[in-house]
Amino acid sequence: MVNSEFIAAKPDLDAAIDARVYAKVLNDLARENPKDPFWKKLQKNFKQKNA
Question: Mind giving me the DSSP string for the chain?
Fold first, then answer.
């Protein structure tokens, strides 16, 4: 949106999005289902994208 000049500056998404809630729920689900690789995969993706 900045490149198209629709907005003047990149917004601060950290102020609008709290990823701690997602991380907590994801960790709780992985702990409840330790044999399910789906939750481990999501945890890995989350850590890579939010490092």
Answer: -TTTTSSSS---GGGT--HHHHHHHHHHHHHH-TT-HHHHHHHHHHHHHT-
Task: Give the separation between CA 12 and CA 9, rounded to whole angstroms.
Answer: 9
Residue position matching structure tokens 């997602």: 22
Put simply, whether the predicted model's pTM sits higher than 0.85 gets the answer: no
Would the pLDDT of 51 be above 80?
A: no
Q: Is 2:10 a contact under the CB 8 Å cutoff? A: yes
What is the per-residue pLDDT for 31? 97
